[in-house]
Specification:
alpha/beta; five-stranded mixed beta sheet; 3 domains; about 20% strand; Putative NBD/HSP70 family sugar kinase; Arc Repressor Mutant, subunit A; binds zinc ion; 14 helices; transferase; 14 strands; Nucleotidyltransferase, domain 5; kinase activity; ROK_cs
Length: about 400
């Protein structure tokens, strides 16, 4: 293998090599070349020395690790009724954050203006110079076209189709860094994977909030599909609800029957006020019996569709996340998922509630940014660049 500084950095970042000796062994590079690569990465503060590995006497090799304080990331998650904005270190640990009520139906300008203002006030509040920011990541509750990084006909985000989110934020903010856009379920799946399931080579997360979406992580990477549509299960048509009109305009979609929005509508008909997935989540937390019954029933419908997903990708872990994630939802999903799937597809499947809540999306978006900004190719380009003069 040809191991430039970027490849050496990758080995250290993912913990596949922890010392100079490991690097020599893994790459086959000479001791001198390894020393040069490591020195360049240390000088750029991309890695740091972290004490010793073996306290067993004799020579103690210095342990090398990714310097998660090299710079910071701005990560934001846009939900239908509110947005969460955070400054994080490169491991996704929150330095400071803000939650603001912003409705996606008010359109991209209003929401992105609010987010840009919040980012500026977070930078100010934490005394962070804009030059410390290495990238911005933002997740949205709709599909993202992987070629353009723009929303791709998002059913619950009127006015956002093909909107240049990255360009808007770059223009609005005093930072000139990559802005990456990702689907919210994908970001949550990646966040949960990065923290609790790094050993799982195939993980799916279904997010049930106002809408329904699935994020799929295969071998540590989000699987987006050709048009960013992978996992967008909310608009799969159910056979037995031909009359129910969905927000996307079609009839009989899973989301029209089993989403937070659909449950909120049914609750409203019963005289219980609710309009979003978040409202339903609050009722569930209070133990509202009708909300629990309807959520359990929704879980059963989601389990039917997830049976196909599980048979298709055979994941090791299926996480149930989003505002409606609750024991009512989980038990409903299990009731239909298992009998409708082949035993082989579920015998090693762990179906459980996601544990990180809203933070999963923040950590996932940090990871998306770090994977891009600190990719081995980007590191090689950065370290081969002559230092700017003056
Ligand atoms: Zn639909």
């Amino acid at each position: 293998m040809t191991a430039g500084p970027g490849e050496v950095f990758d080995l250290i970042r993912y913990g596949r090599a922890r010392t100079r000796g490991d690097l020599q062994e893994v790459t086959g590079l000479s001791r001198m070349t390894v020393a040069q690569r490591v020195d360049a990465l240390l000088a750029a503060a991309l890695i740091r020395e972290a004490g010793t590995d073996r306290p067993s006497g004799g020579r103690r090799p210095t342990r090398l690790e990714f310097n998660i304080e090299h710079s910071i990331v701005v990560a934001a998650t846009v939900d239908t009724t509110h947005s969460h904005i955070a400054l994080t270190d490169l491991a996704g640990r929150i330095i400071d954050d803000d939650s603001i009520d912003l409705a996606v139906i008010d359109g991209p300008e209003k929401v992105l203006h609010g987010i840009a203002e919040s980012i500026e006030s977070l930078l100010e509040r934490t005394d962070t110079p804009p030059s410390r920011v290495s990238g911005i990541g933002i997740s949205i509750p709709g599909p993202v076209d992987p070629r353009t990084s723009r929303p791709s006909q998002p059913p619950i985000m009127p006015g956002w189709d093909a909107y240049p989110i990255a360009e808007y934020l770059r223009d609005a903010l005093p930072v000139s860094v990559p802005v990456l856009v990702e689907n919210d379920a994908n970001a949550m799946a990646l966040g949960e994977h990065s923290v609790g399931f790094t050993d799982c080579s195939s993980l799916a997360l279904v997010k049930i909030s106002t809408g329904i979406g699935t994020g799929i992580v295969i071998n540590g990477r989000v699987y987006q599909g050709i048009d960013g549509g992978a996992g967008d299960i909310g608009h799969v048509r159910l056979g037995d609800h031909p009359d129910v009109v969905c927000q996307c305009g079609a009839r009989g979609c899973l989301a029209a029957v089993a989403s937070g929005r659909a449950i909120a509508q049914k609750l409203t008909e019963l005289g219980i006020e609710a309009s979003s997935g978040r409202d339903v989540g609050e009722l569930l937390a209070k133990g509202n019996v009708e909300a629990m019954r309807l959520t359990h029933e929704a879980g059963r419908r989601i389990g039917e569709v997830m049976a196909t997903v599980v048979c298709l990708i055979n994941p090791g872990v299926l996480l149930i996340g989003g505002a409606l994630a609750s024991s009512s939802l989980l038990s409903g999903v299990r009731e239909t998922l298992y009998p409708m799937s082949l035993p082989r597809a579920t015998r090693n499947l762990d179906v459980r509630l996601a544990t990180m809540g809203d933070k999963a999306g923040i950590i996932g978006m940090t990871r998306v940014v770090v994977d891009e900004v600190f990719a081995s190719k980007a590191i090689n380009a950065r370290l081969n660049e002559p230092e700017p003069v003056g």
